[in-house]
Amino acid sequence: MSGPFSDVSRTIFADKEVLSEGYQPETILEREAEIELYRNAFKDVLFGHPPPNVFIYGKTGVGKTAVTRYILDALQEEVDGRPEADDLTVLWHNCNGETPYSTARAFINDLKPAAEDPFPRRGYSLPEALERFYDLLDRRGGTFLLVLDEIDHLKESDTLLYELPRARANDHVDDAQLGVVGISNNYAFRESLSPKVKDTLMEREISFAPYSADELRTILEHRASMAFRDDGYDPSAIGLCAALAARDTGNARQALDLLLNAGDIAEERGDDAVTDEHVSDAEERVRRGRVLKHVRDQTIHAQLVLETVARLQEDGHAPVRSKTIYDAYTTIAEEWGHDPLSSLKSVQNHLSDLHMLGFLTRHEHNDGRAGGSYYTYEVEHDAAAIVDVRERIEDDRP
Ligand SMILES: Nc1ncnc2c1ncn2[C@@H]1O[C@H](COP(=O)(O)OP(=O)(O)OP(=O)(O)O)[C@@H](O)[C@H]1O
């Protein structure tokens, strides 16, 4: 029997997984200098010396996590292969939305015997949680590396970041040694720490620069050779993905995502190979996807106000004053079946918020005594994309 999927076959991809977000690369390219710094920082661990605290800084998608995983996996493998080396335990924790207490709790739960209940979410103080954690460290012994990813998201981090690296010096642990690896894409975080924490935590610093187009091309070529079938891509398409991502932010995640989308488009169209045209169309698709997400995150009236400005702009009326926007907004809201806000002031508040969020550009006008001062608005980026995503949002409504 034939069904909707019965004639689906892979035409372009050999192993699509290697372009996905979750894929952990076995080969790290173009980061030799950073790997060397990491190697120097941690080589003493093989001989039972305490690890330094290391702070990793770089913008999003520049390989901080991939390189850290690669180096710590390699260190673990080396330690495991040397009977004379102390045991090594690496604990990873993402600090997004976390507190010092929840972080200590996560580490305790990683180390506690399986039969024991998880450490309570509340009811203990941070010093009590840390005491339990230190006790577990000492029981297991050896070297511990605590990786705090997105460390800048850790609320009230000073206490914990002061405490952990000093655990041994302050006699909280006897048989264990520990080092902290902090990863951040917010350089301002460094400045927000108290000097005593900064000095300890940033004992070693490794900064990751954005990738150049050439570096991204090397990374993408390697990934593409695994992801696509032989002759499944045009080398110039790889160069275009690299150039577009380098021109934007130098982010490898973005470059890989573009290539993945280009492959999807080529496959959807039944083409044999990924070309420049697929990459350009993928860029447009990714950009629209981003706009869709940002617009969807706004309240319905903010969306309607934004849509109104976009529609007026499409009709050649922008930059446009708030009174005109208000009148058109009322009609558009009603057409979609929403009760419009009844005051000009509330629409002006939305306009001001949308300007602050970067959706709208605002121009100030001063017509002297007669006209007074007022603002006009226009859509910052792509009016057509906003109208399009608004239609999709309304079409998706139950
Ligand atoms: N040098 C590299 N070699 C191979 N793949 C890489 C390299 N750098 C980055 N990547 C790939 O790019 C993607 C993003 O990298 P990664 O997650 O390490 O970035 P990050 O700097 O940790 O970003 P964030 O700050 O957003 O967490 C991953 O899929 C990773 O596999």
From TrEMBL:
UniProt keyword Cell division, yes or no: yes
Biological process, per Gene Ontology: cell division; DNA replication
Keyword Transferase attributed: no
Domain AAA+ ATPase: 50-222
SMART domains cross-referenced by the UniProt entry: AAA, Cdc6_C
GO terms assigned for molecular function: ATP binding
Ranges of residues in domain Cdc6 C-terminal: 306-390
Residues that, per the record, bind ATP: 62-66, 211, 223
Protein name (record): ORC1-type DNA replication protein
Gene encoding the protein: cdc6A3
